[in-house]
Write a structure and sequence with these properties.
Chain lengths: 201, 241
Amino acid sequence: VPYISAETSAAFRGIYNLGMFLRLDTDPALHLWWGVGDIKAAIPDLDVDGTVYIGGGVLTEVPDGLEMLINGRADKADWILSGVSPEHVEALVKDDPGITGKSVTFAAAPLDDYWQLKAPPVPLWVGTAERWVEHMAPQENPTKSRVLSLVMSVTSGDTTRSLPYYATWTDRDQRIVSAFDLFCARVSRYYPGQAIKWPRF
Amino acid sequence: MAAQPLEFDLNFLRPAQAIMPRILGGAVEGGSALNGITLASDASGGGLVALDYQQFTLNTTNRDAILFYNKLMVALQGGVRLCVVPFLTDILSPITDADLLNGDIITPFSDGTFFSDGTGFYQPQVSGTILNDADVGSAEVRLTVVGGRALQGGEWFGLNHPKKSFRAYCVTEVTGLVALPNGNFNAVVKIRPTLRETISANMPVDWWRPRCLMRLREDPQMLLQQFWRGQPSFSFIEAFT
């Protein structure tokens, strides 16, 4: 069975409206989608039939950091829910859902002209929730109201706060892992695009 | 607990013109194809209902209207507090041409008497009910039109959901229409926006002046010339608690 079924990929090839879904594997699981009203949808093998995804509002921005673990780089993505009422945040603080370590799934589905699912949502990105914070930017324009946002930091791979960010493969980074390893010793001499010869130690 | 929504009373405040209810979506362009046609994709999930009421006639002969406008304006400013807005979509309802001029049906008590101030029970000329249960997010509804004319598409109707309160929907397509012997209609229609909440059979349908829970889209200003007359406006957008 292919990861994306033939039926789904056929639906994605046609003309469709895009539905985007976010699932946070807390207990009970949080189901949000980028739409105004609620919708009945279920990610196969994750959700039970009859799951209702809550309308989280209109999508304003897609995080840049939705990348898989490629070339040793794992990214963090911040999912931001803008326009949260203080009462809701208060309720969240009083009864913290404990999201750390929970699986986060981002899925997309094609919708037809009547905003009905043409195929079940396909999980496109899976991350691990790390923490949530409340965020309100300083007021710069007094004629505009301030927006309170909830930010959920999600990691892919193993980039949590406690781990160093091995993005550049410097000699020093490598020596933290293995003190006498010379494998990255010449990295600082390299430049992008250089044809690297295998070193003769 | 959020504040209770305010009621917008058309008896106090009547706009002279309106930008009729419409749905604001968020289309995303999908890049142009070789034939030059740009494919658009909507990622808004259905969009929000928006409505603009313009040119409320405010003058000293109607001070109640000025005060009512001011009350709504100040209470709703910032878009935090919500308001139940009746839609003046009289012309976009399945009412017959004759009934459009007749006004509401006024019914007395069963013995023919009225209330002490002479008023009775008011009922719109056209009404209806939901025929079948439908899931949240569904775009197809089976319903009836009682005392009206055949649906053509383009009519607005309202539902009062138990949790999501008043919501307005527009008929975009009529896929099935059965004229009943008593002059009423059963219809299968496609709607926008999609259902905000699961509905069940026998739920009343407001074909006449549907209402919707909304908030202000932009802060209004009441410009009063010589402090006694003005034509301010309100622009509303659908809101959720």
